[in-house]
C-alpha cells in the first residue's frame, strides 16, 4: 500500500476502503439478519437425548411425531452416545438445572446415574408397568423406580451368506471359517465398552463369569481368541460398531458381531438379507451367550418440564410406540405384548438368541472391570501376548484395584 | 516453451490435488447412500439425488447446529477484536512492550486444546457453562484460540500506518488515544476486516473444543463428526458441503489480499 | 512512544491469563490426584499411564509425527512459494486456490480424506484401475498409516507456510536475482546461495509457527485412524476422558503434552527473538 502525503485532517489517498472491507459490511448485515431470524423462542418444547445412530434417527422421529400430534408439544431428539449423555446428565445435575427433559442411559450404567435422576411416580405409570417384563422393571429400581426400559438389544453374528454359505455354529467352525478367509473376520477391538460386548460372550460361552479373570473358563475362551487373532482383519484394532458395520457394507470383512441397527443399515443399502444375514453366535464349550444391551429412560433431576417428560416416557413405552420401534429399528421391547422377530425375517438370528441373553454385572466398579477385559483381549489379539499371562495380569490388577478402593 | 509446459503441468497438478477432495465431498453429498457403499466406488454419481440434503434439513439438529456455529463465531469475532485492538495498537507503537507479548501469545498458541479443554469442561460444569445452550463456554475457548491470530494481523496492519498521522493529529490538540481512535482506526479498517474474517473462520472451523465442551447442544463440527463416524457417507458429506459454505465465502472475500501477497497473519 | 499506556493491554492479557492459567492449574491438580482414594499429591495416574502401552505409543508419535509434518510442510510450502512467485497467467487464481485447504474446517477435510483412504476407498480404487495393488493407507499397524496422517495434515496446513514464504519472497528485490543470473548462476545455485539464505528469517518463523502447532495435533489421527491406530497424546487424553470417563488420566496425559510443548518451545522462542 502506497504511503500517501499527509495533510492535516485530510484522509490520505492510498487507503481507500478496499473491496474486502466493503464486502465484509454486507456480510455482517446479512449475518445479523440470519441470527435474528434464527433466534426463536422455545415454547412447549421437550428435549430428549437418546443414543441413536444417524441411520436410526428418521425412524425414531417418526415414532415421536405421534406424540407431537397428540400433545401439541414439540419434541427435540438429540442423538448422542451413551457416554456423552451420561456426561451431560452429570453436568446438569451438578448445576441443578439443565436443558434435558428425558434421557436414555445404557443398561449397565444405571447405578452410577441413579443420583442424577428423579424418582418416578408409579401411580402415573399404572397403565404401562404391568405390561413390562418384571425383570426389566426390576433392573430400573435403584432407590425407588427411576429407570424405565426403553429398548433391549443384544448382539448376533452378522455374516456374508454369499461368501460363507452357512454361518459357523461352533467355535471350531468359526476358526475354520476364519482360517479360510484370512482378514475376513472383524471384531470391535477399539478400547471401549463395545469390545467387552464382543469378548464376554466368548467367556460366558466357555462357562465363565464377568468378574473372574483367571478361572479355567476364561482361559479356555482366551486361548480360543488367541487362535483366532492371526486371522482377524487388522482394522479390528480400531473397529467400533459403526466403522465395523461400514467395513462389512463395503465388503472389507465377511463376518462380525453387531447389534440390530446394523441390519437396518444393510437393509437400507439393499445388502440384507442378501448377502448379509444374522445368525446366533457360535456355541462354545458351555453353550452360547450374548450380551444384553439397551437403554433405559430417566427424567433428570433438573428437567425443565418433568411432568410432560413423564407423559412422553409413557408414550414411548406404549404398545403402539414400542411396536413401531421394533418394526422400524429392530429394537426389542421389554413389553410382553410386543414379541420380537415379528414382521421381519431380518432379525431372525437375533430373535433366536433371546434365551441366551445375559446382562453385564450391575455394579458401580463395572467400568474398571470392563477395562481389564479390554486390555487383556487387546494384548492377546494385537500384541500376540500369551492368553494365560494376559488373564493373570488382569486378575492381579483387579485385585490391586479392589484393595485400594475405600469401602 | 518447456517452461510453459512445466508450469502448465504443475499448475494443473496442483489444482487437481486441491480440488479433487472437494469434488468428492460434493459428489458424495448428492449420491444415494446405496451407491456410496459400492465397490469400486463411482467417481460421478450414477443417480444424483437431493435426498441427503432433504433429510438433513428435515432434522432438527442441523438448523440448531448452524445457528450455534454462527452465534459462537460472531461472538468470538466481537470479543476477540475488542480485546486485541487496543493491545495490537499499543504493541505496534511501542515495540518494547511488543516483545514479551509475543512470548505470551506464542505460549497461548502452543497449549494443546486437549490440555485445556478437559479441565475447562470439568470447571465449566462447576459454573454451569458446560454444554451451555448458547455455547457460552465455547465462546470463551474460541476467544482464547483466536486472540493470537487477530493480534498479529492487527499489529501488522497498525505498523503499516505511519505514526506521523497520529502525531499530526496530536499537534492539532488531540490526545494520543483520541488521535489513534479518530485517525488510525479508520485507516486500519482493512486489517480489521481481515482479522474479523480470520477469527470467524477460526471459530467456524474449530473442532476440538466444540467436541469436548458441548455435548447435547452441538455446533456443526462435532455434528459432522457424529455423522461421519457413525453414519452414512451421504449425510456426512452433505453436512460437510454445508460447512464449506462460509469457508469458501471468506476465501473469496480475502482473495484480493491473498493475491497481492499481503496477508500474513503471523510473526513479522 | 514516551509513556506506553500499558493498561490497554490489560483486558487481553487478563483474559489470556484466566483462560490459560486457571484450567491448566486445575489440570495439574487433577493429574496428581488419585481418583480411587482422592489422595493429593499422588502419582497413581502416571502409574496407570506408564502401564499403558498405548500411552507410550502416543508419546513416541507425538515426537515423530510433528517433526515429519513440519519437514514435509516446509519443503512443500517452499516449493509452492517459489513456483507461485514466477510470473505466469493464472498465478493469482492458483494462489487463492492453494489457500483453500487451510480455510476448510478440519473435520470436513478429515471426513473426505477418510473416505479416500479406507481400504475400499477412492485411493485404492484409483490404484486398482491402474492395475496396481491396493495399499494399507490407514490400517492400524501399517507404517503407511503414519505417513497418510502426515500427508493429510500437510494438505490441510501447508498453505500457512506457503503464505509466509510467499510474502518473504516478495520482499527479495528482483535485482539480486537478476544479478546472480547475469553472473551465470544456474537456478539451483541461485536458490541455494541467494534465495534460501535471504529466506532464513521467514523459514524460521514458519518453523516456529508450525512446530508449535504441530505438537497440538489432535483431530487428524483421531478421525482418520481412531485413537488406537496412530495415537498421539491429545487423542489419548480425549479417549481416556470420552471412552472411560477418566478425567484424571486424561488430565495426566494432557499435562504431559503441555510440558513437552513448553519444553520444546523455549529454544524455538529463543531462536525467534534473535532473528
Question: Care to describe what's here?
Answer:
- The complex is a heterotrimer of chains A (407), B (268) and C (275).
- By secondary structure, chain A is of the alpha/beta class.
- Chain A has 16 helices and nine strands.
- Chain A folds into two domains: 45-153 and 293-352, D-Maltodextrin-Binding Protein, domain 2, CATH 3.40.190; 154-291 and 359-404, Periplasmic binding protein-like II (D-Maltodextrin-Binding Protein, domain 2, 3-Layer(aba) Sandwich).
- Chain A has helices at residues 19-38, 57-71, 82-95, 110-113, 134-139, 161-164, 171-180, 193-205, 216-228, 241-250, 261-268, 306-317, 319-329, 348-351, 366-382, 387-404; strands at residues 45-50, 74-79, 102-106, 148-154, 156-160, 255-258, 276-279, 290-298, 357-358.
- In chain A, helix 15 (366-382) packs antiparallel against helix 16 (387-404).
- Chain B is an all-alpha fold.
- The relative contact order of chain B is 0.14.
- With 275 residues, chain C is mostly helical.
- The chains are: A alpha/beta (407), B mainly alpha (268), C mainly alpha (275).
- Chains in contact: A-B, A-C, B-C.
- Chain A binds chain C through residues 83-84, 86-87, 189-193, 234-235, 237-238, 240, 243, 247, 250-252, 367, 371, 382-383, 401, 404-406, and chain C through 36-37, 53-54, 118-120, 136, 139-142, 225-229, 239, 242-245.
Q: What is the secondary structure topology, with strand pairs?
A:
The complex is a heterotrimer of chains A (407), B (268) and C (275).
Chain A: H1 19-38, E1 45-50, H2 57-71, E2 74-79, H3 82-95, E3 102-106, H4 110-113, H5 134-139, E4 148-154, E5 156-160, H6 161-164, H7 171-180, H8 193-205, H9 216-228, H10 241-250, E6 255-258, H11 261-268, E7 276-279, E8 290-298, H12 306-317, H13 319-329, H14 348-351, E9 357-358, H15 366-382, H16 387-404
Parallel strand pairs in A: 1-2, 1-3, 8-9
Antiparallel strand pairs in A: 3-8, 4-8, 5-6, 5-7
Chain B: H1 2-29, H2 33-36, H3 51-58, H4 61-93, H5 95-110, H6 113-126, H7 136-160, H8 163-171, H9 176-187, H10 189-205, H11 208-213, H12 220-230, H13 233-259
Chain C: H1 10-31, H2 44-51, H3 53-83, H4 91-103, H5 106-117, H6 122-129, H7 143-170, H8 174-182, H9 187-214, H10 219-225, H11 233-242, H12 247-274
Amino acid at each position: 500500500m502506497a504511503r500517501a502525503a499527509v495533510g492535516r485532517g485530510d484522509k490520505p489517498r492510498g487507503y481507500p476502503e478496499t473491496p474486502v472491507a466493503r464486502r465484509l459490511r454486507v456480510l455482517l448485515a446479512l449475518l445479523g439478519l440470519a441470527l435474528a431470524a434464527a433466534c426463536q423462542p422455545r415454547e412447549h418444547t421437550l428435549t430428549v437425548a437418546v443414543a441413536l445412530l444417524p441411520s436410526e434417527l428418521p425412524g425414531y422421529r417418526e415414532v415421536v411425531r405421534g406424540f407431537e400430534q397428540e400433545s401439541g408439544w414439540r419434541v427435540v431428539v438429540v442423538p448422542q452416545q451413551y457416554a456423552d449423555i451420561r456426561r451431560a446428565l452429570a453436568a446438569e445435575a451438578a448445576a441443578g438445572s439443565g436443558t434435558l427433559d428425558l434421557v436414555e442411559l445404557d443398561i449397565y450404567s444405571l447405578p452410577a446415574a441413579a443420583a442424577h435422576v428423579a424418582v418416578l411416580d408409579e401411580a402415573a405409570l399404572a397403565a404401562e408397568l404391568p405390561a413390562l417384563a418384571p425383570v426389566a422393571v426390576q433392573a430400573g429400581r435403584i432407590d425407588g423406580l427411576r429407570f424405565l426400559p426403553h429398548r433391549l438389544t443384544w448382539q448376533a453374528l452378522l455374516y456374508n451368506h454369499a461368501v460363507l454359505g452357512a454361518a459357523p455354529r461352533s467355535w471350531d467352525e468359526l476358526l475354520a471359517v476364519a482360517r479360510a478367509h484370512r482378514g475376513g473376520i472383524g471384531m470391535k477391538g477399539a478400547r471401549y465398552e463395545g469390545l467387552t460386548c464382543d469378548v464376554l460372550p466368548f467367556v460366558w460361552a466357555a462357562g465363565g463369569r464377568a468378574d473372574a479373570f483367571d478361572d479355567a473358563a476364561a482361559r479356555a475362551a482366551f486361548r480360543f481368541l488367541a487362535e483366532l487373532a492371526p486371522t482377524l482383519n487388522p482394522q479390528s484394532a480400531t473397529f467400533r460398531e459403526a466403522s465395523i458395520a461400514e467395513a462389512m457394507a463395503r465388503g472389507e470383512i465377511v463376518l462380525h458381531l453387531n447389534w440390530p441397527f446394523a441390519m437396518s443399515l444393510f437393509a437400507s443399502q439393499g445388502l440384507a438379507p442378501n448377502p448379509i444375514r444374522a445368525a446366533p453366535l457360535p456355541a462354545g464349550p458351555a453353550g452360547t451367550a450374548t450380551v444384553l444391551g439397551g437403554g433405559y429412560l430417566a427424567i433428570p433431576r433438573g428437567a425443565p418440564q418433568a411432568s410432560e417428560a413423564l407423559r412422553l416416557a409413557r408414550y414411548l413405552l406404549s404398545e403402539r410406540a414400542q411396536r413401531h420401534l421394533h418394526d422400524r429399528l429392530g429394537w426389542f421391547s421389554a413389553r410382553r405384548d410386543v414379541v420380537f422377530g415379528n414382521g421381519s425375517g431380518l432379525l431372525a438370528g437375533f430373535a433366536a438368541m433371546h434365551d441366551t441373553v445375559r446382562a453385564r454385572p450391575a455394579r458401580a466398579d463395572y467400568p474398571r472391570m470392563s477395562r481389564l477385559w479390554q486390555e487383556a483381549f487387546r494384548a492377546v489379539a494385537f500384541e500376540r501376548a500369551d492368553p494365560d499371562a494376559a488373564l493373570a495380569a488382569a486378575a492381579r490388577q483387579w485385585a490391586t484395584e479392589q484393595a485400594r478402593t475405600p469401602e | 516453451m518447456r517452461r510453459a509446459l512445466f508450469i502448465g503441468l504443475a499448475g494443473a497438478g496442483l489444482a487437481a490435488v486441491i480440488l479433487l477432495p472437494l469434488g468428492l465431498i460434493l459428489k458424495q453429498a448428492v449420491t444415494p447412500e446405496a451407491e456410496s457403499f459400492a465397490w469400486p466406488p463411482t467417481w460421478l454419481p450414477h443417480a444424483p439425488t437431493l435426498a441427503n440434503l432433504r433429510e438433513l434439513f428435515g432434522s432438527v439438529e442441523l438448523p440448531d447446529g448452524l445457528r450455534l456455529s454462527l452465534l459462537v463465531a460472531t461472538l468470538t469475532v466481537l470479543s476477540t477484536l475488542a480485546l486485541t485492538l487496543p493491545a495490537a495498537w499499543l504493541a505496534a507503537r511501542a515495540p518494547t512492550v511488543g516483545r514479551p507479548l509475543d512470548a505470551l501469545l506464542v505460549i497461548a498458541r502452543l497449549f494443546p486444546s486437549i490440555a485445556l479443554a478437559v479441565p475447562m469442561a470439568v470447571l465449566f460444569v462447576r459454573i454451569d457453562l458446560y454444554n451451555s445452550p448458547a455455547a457460552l463456554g465455547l465462546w470463551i475457548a474460541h476467544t482464547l484460540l483466536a486472540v493470537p491470530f487477530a493480534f498479529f494481523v492487527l499489529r501488522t496492519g497498525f505498523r503499516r500506518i505511519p505514526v506521523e498521522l497520529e502525531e499530526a493529529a496530536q499537534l492539532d490538540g488531540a490526545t494520543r488515544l483520541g488521535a489513534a481512535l479518530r485517525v488510525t482506526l479508520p485507516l486500519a479498517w482493512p486489517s480489521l476486516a481481515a482479522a474479523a474474517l480470520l477469527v470467524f473462520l477460526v471459530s467456524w472451523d474449530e473442532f476440538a473444543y466444540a467436541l469436548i465442551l458441548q455435548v447435547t447442544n452441538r455446533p456443526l463440527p462435532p455434528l459432522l463428526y457424529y455423522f461421519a463416524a457413525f453414519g452414512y457417507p451421504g449425510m456426512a458429506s452433505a453436512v460437510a458441503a454445508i460447512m464449506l459454505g462460509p469457508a469458501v465465502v471468506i476465501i473469496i472475500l480475502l482473495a484480493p489480499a491473498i493475491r497481492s501477497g499481503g496477508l500474513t497473519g503471523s510473526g513479522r | 512512544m514516551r509513556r506506553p499506556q500499558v493498561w490497554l493491554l490489560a483486558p487481553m492479557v487478563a483474559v489470556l491469563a484466566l483462560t490459560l492459567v486457571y484450567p491448566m492449574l486445575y489440570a495439574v491438580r487433577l493429574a496428581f490426584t488419585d481418583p480411587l482414594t482422592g489422595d493429593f499429591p499422588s502419582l497413581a495416574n502416571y502409574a496407570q499411564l506408564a502401564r499403558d502401552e498405548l500411552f507410550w505409543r502416543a508419546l513416541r508419535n507425538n515426537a515423530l509425527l510433528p517433526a515429519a509434518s513440519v519437514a514435509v510442510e516446509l519443503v512443500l510450502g517452499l516449493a509452492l512459494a517459489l513456483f507461485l512467485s514466477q510470473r505466469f497467467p493464472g498465478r493469482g487464481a492458483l494462489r487463492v486456490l492453494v489457500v483453500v485447504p487451510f480455510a476448510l474446517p478440519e473435520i470436513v477435510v478429515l471426513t473426505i480424506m477418510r473416505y479416500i483412504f479406507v481400504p475400499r476407498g477412492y485411493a485404492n480404487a484409483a490404484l486398482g484401475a491402474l492395475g496396481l495393488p491396493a495399499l494399507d493407507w490407514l490400517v492400524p499397524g501399517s507404517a503407511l498409516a503414519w505417513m497418510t496422517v502426515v500427508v493429510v495434515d500437510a494438505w490441510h496446513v501447508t498453505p500457512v507456510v506457503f503464505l509466509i514464504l510467499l510474502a518473504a519472497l516478495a520482499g527479495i528485490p528482483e535485482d539480486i536475482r537478476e544479478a546472480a543470473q547475469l553472473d551465470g548462476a544456474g537456478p539451483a545455485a541461485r536458490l541455494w546461495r541467494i534465495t534460501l539464505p535471504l529466506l532464513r528469517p521467514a523459514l524460521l518463523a514458519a518453523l516456529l509457527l508450525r512446530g508449535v502447532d504441530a505438537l497440538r495435533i489432535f483431530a487428524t489421527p483421531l478421525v482418520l485412524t481412531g485413537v488406537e491406530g496412530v495415537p498421539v497424546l491429545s487423542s489419548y487424553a480425549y479417549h481416556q476422558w470420552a471412552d472411560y470417563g477418566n478425567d484424571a488420566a486424561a488430565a495426566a496425559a494432557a499435562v504431559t503434552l503441555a510440558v513437552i510443548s513448553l519444553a520444546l518451545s523455549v529454544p524455538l522462542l529463543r531462536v525467534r527473538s534473535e532473528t
